[in-house]
UniProtKB/TrEMBL annotation, chains A, B, C:
GO terms for molecular function: amino acid binding; ornithine carbamoyltransferase activity. This is N-succinylornithine carbamoyltransferase. The lineage of its organism: Bacteria, Pseudomonadati, Bacteroidota, Cytophagia, Cytophagales. Pathway: Amino-acid biosynthesis; L-arginine biosynthesis. It catalyses: N(2)-succinyl-L-ornithine + carbamoyl phosphate = N(2)-succinyl-L-citrulline + phosphate + H(+). The gene is argF'. Residues 13-160 form the Aspartate/ornithine carbamoyltransferase carbamoyl-P binding domain. Belongs to the aspartate/ornithine carbamoyltransferase superfamily. SOTCase family. Carbamoyl phosphate binds at residues 47-50, 75, 110, 147-150, 273-274, 301. Its EC number is 2.1.3.11. N(2)-succinyl-L-ornithine binds at residues 142, 177, 237, 277. Homotrimer.
């Protein structure tokens, strides 16, 4: 593993999951391993959980972390090569990434999609430009199309909550929202669940099909109730349409996940990456009840990041 | 002491004051006491002095501090239970507080009042929601109705500047301002001065009476000159009206505190929590003269916070 | 050296350059020298490179650094003495600087010019008010008229890239831009290059003459090609007019620096403080080619700051 931007293979995934679980038991076991090392956390978009959990992970390993919020207009980066920079972009990513690569041992970067330029977004253009020009290992803190630290934390959460020998049945269910939301969490969860050889079903309204690149191997089921029937884990997430790109479509039926939808499935656990819109995506009764693993997931973000940084060191 | 959000009793207050004075003499005496502990400083409103002094206090104890500015629109928190979150609030305080409680050993939070919803403000709703849902000890960095770290620093400042056997005579005087200012500093100062058994007089224009909950035991004197006559300490502060709530009333007379107001009282010291509007609240001659304790107060903020964190550890 | 705000003398400059070069070889050689010391980095304007490099420098010396962004409206500082503060400024620099001086061992401050009040700007009013009222050593992170940490890093870069016995020929060339840019980098570079006894030529369009205070001793050459002919180092930088102050003038000729301008000068190195507007100030071919020292300069910012902080300790 040179960079951490996506699911690579099941052996690496298993090794990271086991490492994360070990750090959860003893967070400071490698507390001097990263002494003298520095990680730069670069945010082109806002963050709270991701920033905090990654800083705590770094601290647990003795790595010094520095946060750079570059989401303000004044630090707008030019991403395209060869242009005459006579507009509002003040610095080219070639120069900024190279400087940051010279300052830090590891760079971690958050770069959301535009949701308007499909071709650029699906090529994961921004994070790839950083990788190309920084010259140091790069960790994705959520790119245009993936959120691998979230997915690793999700896999850790499933692992610690499923002790049976069979494959867990995992359901990814679309949920309502009022804004056009990126596909990154849904793409990554699908990529990792399939990669980890879980039995994955994705349920969503017609029109909300994700990029097949991430869902090959999953069952698509348009009837939410049917999909939930024998689920072990239900992952709730909104995303905007992939075609037409980044749009909110009109939807028939009620996609809010509440207790009624589970019928006699009393054992299914419910997951969400947070922040969650209560009573729009997920009901209070579920979030505050026994099914909910959302706080476990949030806590596991620390140990997922710690496993990745530890492996890079 | 589980949380630090208000004056509790005189024994605890005295113990914190003595501890703060000891830290002022030797700031690093407990420099490893907090090793491995982490405090999250959460700001729903801007801060400079409070943030810096609390971070320095934590550092003096070996506690790692992390700052989270949640005052931007993008992290707007829903505070009300049971609502359908289909508006502009992106995360519920139940979820955010629980995550943060899982990440940190202590949380410190700043949450100013709205000055428009009196009932919610006087119930100290926001900080109490954090306490309810975070599951870890909480320090107030100024809530809707109190600013206890400021008041503790103020008590430390009075203690180190008053060596007589009798009770000090303390005067809280209203000062002019151009904005509607919260009651928190005035409430807390009154609560702590009375709680510490000082002789407190509050002077302000008619209509600026504070919530009696905080001023029971104080003398109210509408004639500023009379109030100042034999004062040992004069605390200058603006606040908006409590009834009608959060309003600026028209005032007769001149309430700017300057040297003329003191008559033949040459010994009184002057305090202000800063930031101060020079020559509107307080004259340059006083701020830059021998009466002023404002820099002592600002410095003591470090040791007040340090005493509180040390006691929590 | 009490404060670090400008070029003082060649002995001090040489000593800082040598120290910076030594730190580049072994950044952690004095890693415990600053233990227990704290530096406050105060930004009245945005920063990325300066903030990061100064924090890394502090960390290399065991100095704890704290960043204070005071560029938001809510912390607007009153700079003028004696005024009645009944407008939008919330705190006076006398009070803020004194508090910060009480909290930190060293203060570093960035305060850009207004480019509208020439008299105030050229007196370096803001940083001088900080020095006057803070009571601790102050480092300039770029003031209204100078950027000495950048210039020190530039001198370090020239030193490590010029091994001949003769004086290096250094050219400062004006470059196009779309905004009105301060004079600080150009002033400081000129001040330091002349102070270090280099052979300095400044080339710019008519009307862009810098304040003579900084350029006395330099050759002014209005023909860019002629200036570049036998240059060893070419420093590219835009600045606005000094008279009329802060204005962008219409310019004849092409001032973009590209390879064609160099004729048969194959050895000249090109410098820029970054951020650079590619293909407006400097061509891609130069920035990405062998002439470019811009990444060296950026890296040397760490060791320049480290030399200054180390000397202050």
């Amino acid at each position: 593993m040179i960079n951490f931007t996506k699911f690579e293979n099941i052996d690496l995934a298993n090794s990271l999951i086991e490492k994360a679980l070990a750090f959860k038991v003893d967070p400071r076991v490698n507390q001097n391993k990263g002494n003298g090392k520095r990680i730069g956390l670069i945010f082109l978009n806002p963050s709270l959980r991701t920033r905090m959990s990654t800083q705590l992970a770094a601290s647990n390993l003795g790595v010094e972390s520095f946060v750079l919020n570059m989401d303000k207009e004044s630090w707008a980066l030019e991403m395209q090569d060869g242009v005459v920079m006579n507009q509002n972009k003040v610095e080219h990513i070639r120069d900024a990434a190279a400087v940051l690569g010279g300052y830090f041992d590891i760079l971690a970067i958050r770069a959301f999609p535009t949701l308007t330029n499909k071709e650029e977004d699906i090529s994961d253009f921004v994070i790839n430009q950083f990788i190309k020009y920084s010259g140091v290992p790069v960790i994705s803190l959520e790119s245009a199309i993936r959120h691998p630290l979230q997915s690793l934390a999700d896999m850790v959460t499933i692992r610690e909550n499923f002790k049976e020998k069979r494959k867990p049945k995992v359901v990814l269910t679309w949920a309502p929202h009022i804004k056009a939301i990126p596909h990154a969490v849904a793409n990554s969860f699908s990529e990792w669940a399939i990669g980890c050889d879980y039995d994955l079903t994705i349920t969503h309204p017609h029109g909300y099909e994700l990029d097949k690149k991430f869902t090959n191997g999953a069952t698509i089921e348009y009837d939410q109730t049917k999909a939930l029937a024998d689920a072990d884990f239900v992952y709730v997430k909104n995303w905007s349409a992939f075609t037409p790109y980044g749009k909110i479509l009109s939807v028939t039926g009620d996609w809010l996940l509440n207790e009624d939808k589970f019928g006699d499935n009393t054992h299914a656990k419910v997951m969400h990456c947070l922040p969650v819109r209560r009573n729009l995506e997920l009901s209070d009764e579920i979030l505050d009840g026994k099914r909910s693993l959302v706080q476990n997931q949030a806590k596991n973000r620390i140990f997922a990041a710690q496993a990745v940084i530890d492996t890079m060191l």
